[in-house]
Every structure is written in structure tokens, then in C-alpha cells.
Amino acid sequence: MPTPQTLPAAALLVAYLLSPLACLADDFSLKALVPSEAQMAVVWRQNPEREPQREQLAKVLETFRKERIAERVFDIIQGRIEEDDLEEAQQNIAELREATASASLDALTNASEAAFFQVAEGEAANNVIAVRMTPEAVSGYVEAAKNLLALAEQKSGDEFSITEEQVDGANYLTVYPPSPAPMQPTLAGKDGVLIFSTSQSLARAAVMRLSSDSPESKFDEPRLKDALAKLPAAEDSVYFYDGKQQFKSLRDQLAPALEAIKQQGDGDANAAAAVRLIHALMDELAVTDLEVAVGYTEEGHNRTDTLGMLLPGTDERLLRQVLVGGEPLQDWTRWTPAGAAAFRLSSGVDLQALYTRVLGVFSREAPELAAEALVQLTKVEDQLQLNLEDDILALFSGQSVSVTLADGQSFAALKCRQPEHTRELLHRAIDAAVQIPQVAQQQLELVESETLPGFEDLRASFFAAVGVRPVIGFKDGWMIFATTPEAAQQAIDVRWGDADSFASTEAFERFGLEVSGPVSAISYSDTAGAFRKTAQYINQAAAMAPLLAGAALQEADPKDAEAIQKVIALLPSIARVIEKLDFMEAQLAVQRPGDTHDSYRKESVMLIRQD
Length: 611
Hints:
Layout: H1 9-18, E1 40-45, H2 51-66, H3 69-79, H4 83-99, H5 105-109, E2 113-121, E3 124-132, H6 135-156, E4 161-167, E5 170-176, E6 186-190, E7 193-197, H7 200-211, H8 222-228, E8 237-242, H9 243-265, H10 269-285, E9 288-298, E10 301-310, H11 318-324, E11 340-346, H12 351-365, H13 367-384, H14 388-393, E12 396-405, E13 410-416, H15 419-433, H16 437-440, E14 445-448, E15 455-459, H17 461-466, E16 471-475, E17 478-482, H18 485-496, H19 506-509, E18 521-525, H20 527-555, H21 558-579, E19 584-593, E20 599-608
Antiparallel strand pairs: 1-2, 1-8, 2-3, 3-7, 4-5, 5-6, 6-7, 8-9, 9-10, 10-20, 11-12, 11-18, 12-13, 13-17, 14-15, 15-16, 16-17, 18-19, 19-20
Helix pairs in contact: 2-21, 3-21, 9-10, 12-13, 20-21
């Protein structure tokens, strides 16, 4: 937590110790459960600073309960059940409720801490979820699990093997499926922590670390600690993904199968090529060293900061080109109008470079397969009179822009290497489309715009019916699509004119996020406005539905008509719940190159209304 630099050292210490968040950044107790062989993990905990938004969320849940949405949905489902099956269905539901009565939903939603991690074991990637609750709540969930398993065994007729043990104060419940399986789902509870795992051994190991005074955790590894030290202190959550660990495990898991292919092939060239190709593709995907992220809170701001580290020498590999291979955007502010409701800009992927890389891998490791694939591709290209690389993949660099304006209009743009050739291909596509009778009926055509130089109106009967007037144009190496000429004009004004940018607005300043220099991706959303508009659309649908469905309802089966009427009546209640979510006001996220060649940074901020 930030503290005034002018306070004397003693006062700083006292203020820190008395703070309700004292030592918060180091108090993720469930980190101790994460073993060194874990390939990913996230640990989350309640933060007192987020109490106002928990209260907002409670209002959402209260509205959900007040509108009786769950009960009404159940009533609709129940109404669709045949009379002969209704009594049995009601009995099954009653038994299910009775079986789970001891599991407290409130205890789960009020859990003080939770963790998830994944470990590769044998042929499977097994998962562990741990939740810190009260001991009574943990016992209730264990009891509910026992009841559910007994009920499932009774109803299905399958003979599950279920073992229940108590070892060193921990309760274990393990399920063995009727046939051999790589997973043995296990539920364990100890000291107010509920642990569920797809692996019995992982569940037992987690309980042992929970009981240990000094457990060895993945979070204690210097490599992970050094990476997290470069980020702000975690207050709400801490996360890692270990790419090196995952691909080591994946190679170990695949090794027996690949060896079997070689043995069964008995020197067959195709079998050997298949094994080489799989190894090569694994190398093309193994580009991430480590990614870490922390979540923390400032008043009205939920922040996430991420550091990604890539393996040196992997610049040309496939996955690296997808993740960070695009040319960064130098001037994102010149694409985002001040009144934008949402936007996303991305450096994207150079599809031509990706294609060249894939073709090179296949040609090197499986030349016969690559040659045959190229022969088939050439046949398709001849039929379409197109060349995949020259006429499609080479046209665009990967950079893209998508903007939604406040009035619902939108525009998009793609960085174009060959504008004239792209325009020619676009006209060819329209000419081919109108040869289809159904398309011809729509009177589809491209006509030179009367108001926008370099643009054409895309006209069709369908567009006129729904009130859009699409335009497509090219300017300074960009291909621009817009739902209306006015939207295209806004793109032109902010990009090449002197219109105000989103970066100059108070809406942007509220995020407290400095975004200077090139970015790999940036996105913004007026989430509160989106929730309100969604609720508005649902209410409009509820108002119009009886008029649109009136005649059909009169001819429908009475049960069907009743169900439809109940669904329509439910819509305003759903809208009222969605409206309550508008306390999440807006979100901004940015990804940019890191401090080193083999790194990247991502930051995300969600604005929360403080009532």
C-alpha cells in the first residue's frame, strides 16, 4: 500500500502494522499448497478494499432472488416435462436438494481465500482447487459430496468404488470409476480448507503441505520470485504459468506414444516423418518461459499487471509470431475517437509469415506430406482462380482496428500491403456472389461513394431493411469498413484530421494508466453502458415479442404457448438484474513490448463505481 514518504520511519512502521491490510501482499497462505512441479496456478483472496464492490454484487444477487428468476426458470422447465414423468422429476429434484442441503453457498461466496493449480501426472494434467472456509462449512461440503455420490450410484446403477478415510485430522473422499481411468476425483477437508482434486495423490500432497510448518512451494523458487518482484505487490490475486514446465511434462507424456509409433512403423518412412513432425510442432509451440500476474486494488480501480518472459532464440517460431510477432502500433491514439464506446487495436499476426513458417516445417520434417498438400491446394486455387499466399495472406500485415461509437455505429480497419489488388479482389468477390440467385435478389453491389473519396457504398436490400449503409474504402495503406458513411468520416477525422482522441478525454484519465510509446494491443469498453444497453434491448424484445409471436402462439401447442409466454414474462426481470451490473463502469487493457527483447507487459484496469 502506498504510504507518505515524509513520515518518520517509526511512524511508517506503526501505521503499517496497524493497517487492516498489514502484510497483505505476503499473506496468501494457500500458495503453500502449490508444488514445485505445478505448471500453472492462481491464488485469490478477499481484500477489504473491495468490500464496496462486494456490496454492489450483493445487490445484484438480491435482485436475482427478488425476481425469483431461478424458481421461474425451473417452473418453465417443469412445465415442459410430460405428465407421466413429472412426479419422478419432482422426486429427483427433492432428493438432490436434500443431498446438498449441508453445502452452504454463502460459505463458498464468503470464502477468505481460494487456489487453483495444475500438475502433469502420467498421461493426464490433473487439477486441484482449494477453498478456505470455516471448518463447519468444509464438513458440510464433504457431507454433501457423500450424499451426491450415493445418489448418483443409486440412480445410475453403476458401481462406483468410493473410499472414505480420516488421516491425521483430514477427511478424504475418493471416487474410483467403474473402469480404469487416469483420474481419481478426491475431496479432502482439513483445518477449514476444502480441497478437490482430480488426483488422489495430489489431494494428499496438498493436505500434507497444508499441515507442514515449512512446505516447499513453487512460489519459493527464485525464478518465480524474481519475476514477481518486477510487478506491484499482489493484494487480490497472484498467478503464474510456467511454459518450460508444461512443455517438459508434455514431451514426457508424449514420449511413450511416439516411441510406439516408431516401433509399429518398423522403419516406415511415414511413421518416422510423423514423429519428426510432432517433435517439430512441439518446438514451434514451446516459446514461453514464464508468465506471472498480480491483482491489486486502488480506490475504484481493480488492477491486473502481467509480465511475460519468452524463451531466447524463439523469434521465428509459430506461437511467438502469434503472441508478439506483429508490428507494434505506434499511434493508437489516432484511431480512437473521443466518444468511442469501445475499441480494440492489435498488432495482430502476419499470416503470410505464419504460412511460410508452417510450410517450411512440413517441408523439412515431412516432405512427401507437404508436397501432396501443395498439390491439393493448387487444385483448389485453380478452381477459385486465387492464390492463397499472393491473393489472401500477403494482402494484410496483421495490424487491425475495431471501434464502436456511442451511437452504435462502428468502423474497422486493416493495414493493407496491396490496396489496389485488394480492391480488385473485393470487386471480383462481389461479382461472383451476385451469380448466386439468392444473393442477386438482394441487389448486392459496390458503388462509388458520393461523399467519401476513395470509398464505395456496399448496397443490398437487406442492409436497407436493417438501417445500415456500409462503406468500404482505402486510405494511406489502410482498408476501412464502416457501418455508415458517418462512422467512416469519424475514422478519417480522428486518424487524418484534428478530431479529439479518446486519449485526451477525462474518461481515459480516470484509469490512471500511462500509455505512451508503441503498443501490441489496447482495448477499451464502456461496460456500464454495455450492460444498460443490453437491458434496454431485452426490455424492447419483451415488449415486441407478444406482438410478433401473437399469431404463432394461437396455433401452438398449449404447453409450448405457455412456456413461451413465461419466457417473455421473464425477460424484464433478467433485464433488471443486468442493469444492476453497471457498477462495473469501464475497462482498459494494454499490452506492450517489455524492457527486454524477450518480454512483454500487460496491464488491465476495471473502474468500479463507489456508491
